[in-house]
Design the sequence.
């Protein structure tokens, strides 16, 4: 048996229908009291341990069931019953594999008949051995065969009349799981749900209760049995859906919004549930008051009084509950207290302990993510170095964006912060976890100075970074194949697909950012000593470089790590496009007709402006976009100027073949 | 002079007419009028609502997902999530086996993949007593990078199959060379970015369709149009989030695409047949969607 074949086909039957797509969010649900892997993991582990024990292997040995190995071992031992059991188990597993495994050879009718015949023979054999020494194993085998043969009622009868009296073993657990599936398939779904819940079979529960999750359902379940096993599952689902509803209205909840979730829980329903939780605790019938009080506190926090909720969740920690409930409560205490706490050494120390606990308990990474983005971000908003270190320590996606957009001086301070010893527990913990990659921050600080055109300072930070650092960047392909000396208004440096997506390890001649900064420093430094045509040509050359280094230029990688159509001018950065425009305007005053034409033409380049000379306006009658000129735009004025300039002369080829200019002329009826 | 002008005019008119015809001939080897659905579950089992739906809207074709082809751990394409046939289609409804192939399976050619795929479909038909199958459809989100591999694969499928072959065409594929198939099923859904689901509906938003409209008129392949009626359940932190499309949005987009290419109203498919999807929209909506 290569892997545990899930005994309950209910999950197999329905769950593949739930289309799943990856979704990014920090909006993790905090109310986790149910382990969705518990059943299958537990069963598989015990089965493996049993085989190891039979084969005399050490409990620490890695083991994967191998029928041949067990048969040989049993034969050597003279254990004929085990030999026949494993031989038949292997026959069954072969049938199960042929049902679940996918092959190019689709079974013929003869194959299906043979499978059915084989299952029947194993079933007959197993039934004949249910009074033997290995009766539990054989009974399980019998029920498995019934399951694949669709004999669900026979499984119900067999469990209720025979197997339920067996001693507690993993085989009995697996039989009970098959029995629960059979109950569901024969219409006894309530009983099935209770059994799935008791076993921790989350997948089957979700399948069964998918459309039956609500306050009313929970209340009904509770009224029929205050300790119904399905209650933790239903309560978890309800509270998490309530969190979704709350997050949809919470401006600080990232990556969520809208009314797109399946269970749109209203505030009223959430508060009804909160009150019901109070009632349940008051009645004292539940064996797990911690679960109800944690749910009540979390709902109170989201929809009611945060201060009261924090007191309630701390009180919840003292009540009875399972281990997952205790961890859930601890997570909620962290979330609520970090939301409410004032800045203090005591809180820092508490947080350090909780971060260590979360680090040790990887299953709770989601708690760290949510706490970081929802409460700690706010708590440490005025302590940027700590906040960045928290982002880095917690592996937050926001780390890169945050350091990329923060003020240069603050980043310099952060670099100092991570490179010096911590003075208290929190700082020491963070500094030991937040070491940046080599040259990562130096490059970024240098780049930030480039973004504000402080070339000298940029050079100081960039000068020691080797070119290999840039050769390992994703943008190396652009750095190696594009030049900032090419006029973008005349030639776009598109890369061929086989270049852009090749696996080539691109070699650079030097540190490209340093080269650019040095070139700009020199060219700008000389501006004051140039005049006349030299000055105009220099202005044009500088404008070319600014346009290329702009986020819409082909050499965007000089200033940014990535490119997106949604990129915009960021606060605190020099407007490189505007600088290019200013320089081009100077060049356009040239007496040299060729340079003048190039500069006037360059001023028409759309990527220099935030608004284009026209807008695409959707026409809902023609179902097409109409072009609507924006006569107030800078680009419109530039195109007009080009039109005037070219009116009395023969335009250069790059002007006459410009489709944008031709569209403009057409719209002007010229 | 008048005579020369008349001759020139005649030549010009005839030339224009012929050019138009040839262009139209390519485009408008029209598909017969008909209504169809995709069936995308892992067990073919129709309830009474679904059967009534097939009857009520004169559905004459079901594009039934037989299996997916995915990459296994050894880097070989393998079938996955094969359908079980617990039921049969009504006698007057044509079964069109459809196979979804993941993008990684066709990044490079795989020997005999087309033959294996066709052989498996034939065997599935035989084992499950499905007769009268004339056509198969391949669903694959090809890109410019693997287009050549995919088109070669389609040629091999066509050769192995012998009957009608169609493929799905996503909007972004309209700007590419047309695939070597008998016709395409234009998938007018999954138009948005799933990561930006809070901004636009990832299933369908007319603003995401509009940029592709200009390719429709000239696309040199007969096409059926497939519209979404499904909900999309996404699992985020173990809780499902549901996306659905407003009926008005579907109809708005249908109007849009048919403005650009009139014959897209001839063969209509909805994705996908399911009781919940049927109940999601009013009968008038389905009548409009299936309006030719």
Sequence:
């Amino acid at each position: 048996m290569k892997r545990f074949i899930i005994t309950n086909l209910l999950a197999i039957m329905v769950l593949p229908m739930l289309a799943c797509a990856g979704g990014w969010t920090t909006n993790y649900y905090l109310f986790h009291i149910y382990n969705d892997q518990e059943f299958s993991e537990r069963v598989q582990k015990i089965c493996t341990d049993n085989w190891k024990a039979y084969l005399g292997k050490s409990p620490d040995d890695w083991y994967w069931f191998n029928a041949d190995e067990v048969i040989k071992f049993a034969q050597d031992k003279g254990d004929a019953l085990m030999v026949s059991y494993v031989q038949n188990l292997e026959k069954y597993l072969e049938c199960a594999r042929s049902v679940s495994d996918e092959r190019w050879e689709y079974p013929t009718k003869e194959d299906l008949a043979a499978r059915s015949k084989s299952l029947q023979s194993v079933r007959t054999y197993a039934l004949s051995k249910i009074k033997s020494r290995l009766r539990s194993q054989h009974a399980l085998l019998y029920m498995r065969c019934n399951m694949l043969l669709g004999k669900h009622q026979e499984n119900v009868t067999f469990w209720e009349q025979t197997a339920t009296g067996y001693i507690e073993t993993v085989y009995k657990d697996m039989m009970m799981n098959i029995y629960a599936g059979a109950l569901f398939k024969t219409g006894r779904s309530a009983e099935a749900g209770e059994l799935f819940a008791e076993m921790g079979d989350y997948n089957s529960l979700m399948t069964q209760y998918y459309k039956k999750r609500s306050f009313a359902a929970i209340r009904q379940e509770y009224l029929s049995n205050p300790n119904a096993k399905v209650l933790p599952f239903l309560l978890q689902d309800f509270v998490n859906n309530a969190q979704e509803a709350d997050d949809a209205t919470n401006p600080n909840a990232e990556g969520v919004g809208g009314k797109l979730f399946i269970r749109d829980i209203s505030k009223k329903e959430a508060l009804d549930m909160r009150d019901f939780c109070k009632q349940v605790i008051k009645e004292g019938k539940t064996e797990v008051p911690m679960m109800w009080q944690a749910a009540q506190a979390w709902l109170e926090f989201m929809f009611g009084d945060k201060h009261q909720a924090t007191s309630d969740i701390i009180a919840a920690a003292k009540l009875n509950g399972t281990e997952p409930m205790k961890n859930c409560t601890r997570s909620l205490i962290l979330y609520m207290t970090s939301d409410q706490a004032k800045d203090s050494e005591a809180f820092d120390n508490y947080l350090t302990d909780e971060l260590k606990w979360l680090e040790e308990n990887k299953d709770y990474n989601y708690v760290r993510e949510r706490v970081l983005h929802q409460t700690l971000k706010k708590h440490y908003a005025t302590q940027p170095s700590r906040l960045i270190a928290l982002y880095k320590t917690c592996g937050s996606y926001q780390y890169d964006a945050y350091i990329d957009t923060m003020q240069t001086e603050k980043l310099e301070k952060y670099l100092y912060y991570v490179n010096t010893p911590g003075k208290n527990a929190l700082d020491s913990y963070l500094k030991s976890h937040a070491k940046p990659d080599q040259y990562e921050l130096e490059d970024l600080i240098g780049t930030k100075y480039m973004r504000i055109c402080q070339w000298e300072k940029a050079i100081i930070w960039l000068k020691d970074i080797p070119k290999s650092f840039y050769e390992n960047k994703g943008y190396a392909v652009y750095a190696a194949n594009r030049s900032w000396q090419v006029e973008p208004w005349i030639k776009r440096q598109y890369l061929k697909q086989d270049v852009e997506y090749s696996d080539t390890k691109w070699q650079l001649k030097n540190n490209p950012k340093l080269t650019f900064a040095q070139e700009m420093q020199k060219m700008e430094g000389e501006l004051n000593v140039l005049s006349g045509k030299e000055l105009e040509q220099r202005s044009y050359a500088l404008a070319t470089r600014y346009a290329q280094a702009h986020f819409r230029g082909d050499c965007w990688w000089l200033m940014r790590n990535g490119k997106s159509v949604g990129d915009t001018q960021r606060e605190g950065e020099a407007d490189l496009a505007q600088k290019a425009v200013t320089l081009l305007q100077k060049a356009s005053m040239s007496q040299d007709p060729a340079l003048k034409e190039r500069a006037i033409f360059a001023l028409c380049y759309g990527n220099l402006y935030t608004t284009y000379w026209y807008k695409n306006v959707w026409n809902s009658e023609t179902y097409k976009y109409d072009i609507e000129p924006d006569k107030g735009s800078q680009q419109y004025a530039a195109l007009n100027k080009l039109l005037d300039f070219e009116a009395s002369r023969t335009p250069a080829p790059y002007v006459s073949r410009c489709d944008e200019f031709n569209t403009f002329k057409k719209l002007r009826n010229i | 002079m008048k005579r020369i002008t008349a001759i020139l005019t005649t030549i010009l008119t005839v030339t224009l007419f012929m050019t138009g015809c040839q262009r139209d001939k390519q485009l408008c080897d029209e598909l017969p009028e008909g209504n169809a659905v995709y069936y995308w579950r892992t067990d073919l089992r129709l309830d009474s609502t679904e059967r009534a739906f097939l009857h009520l809207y004169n559905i004459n074709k079901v594009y039934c997902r037989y299996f997916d082809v995915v990459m296994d751990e050894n880097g070989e394409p393998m079938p996955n999530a094969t359908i079980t046939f617990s039921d049969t289609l009504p006698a007057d409804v044509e079964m069109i086996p459809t196979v979804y192939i993941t993008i990684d399976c066709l990044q490079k050619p795989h020997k005999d993949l087309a033959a294996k795929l066709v052989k498996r479909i034939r065997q599935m038909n035989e084992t499950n007593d499905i007769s009268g199958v004339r056509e198969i459809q391949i669903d694959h989100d090809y890109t410019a990078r693997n287009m050549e591999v995919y088109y070669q694969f389609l040629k091999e499928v066509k050769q192995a199959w012998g009957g009608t072959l169609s493929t799905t065409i996503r909007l972004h594929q309209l700007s590419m060379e047309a695939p070597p198939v008998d016709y395409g099923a234009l998938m007018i859904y999954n138009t948005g970015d799933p990561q930006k689901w809070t901004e636009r509906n990832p299933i369908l938003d007319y603003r995401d369709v509009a940029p592709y409209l200009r390719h429709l008129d000239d696309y040199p392949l007969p096409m059926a149009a497939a519209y979404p009626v499904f909900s999309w359940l996404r699992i985020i932190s173990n809780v499902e989030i549901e996306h659905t499309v407003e009926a008005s949005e579907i109809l708005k987009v249908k109007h849009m695409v048919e403005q650009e290419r009139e014959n897209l109203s001839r063969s209509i498919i909805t994705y996908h047949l399911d009781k919940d999807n049927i109940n999601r929209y009013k009968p008038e909506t389905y009548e409009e969607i299936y309006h030719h």
About this structure: Residues 300 and 309 of chain A are 5 Å apart (CA to CA). The radius of gyration of chain A is 35 Å.
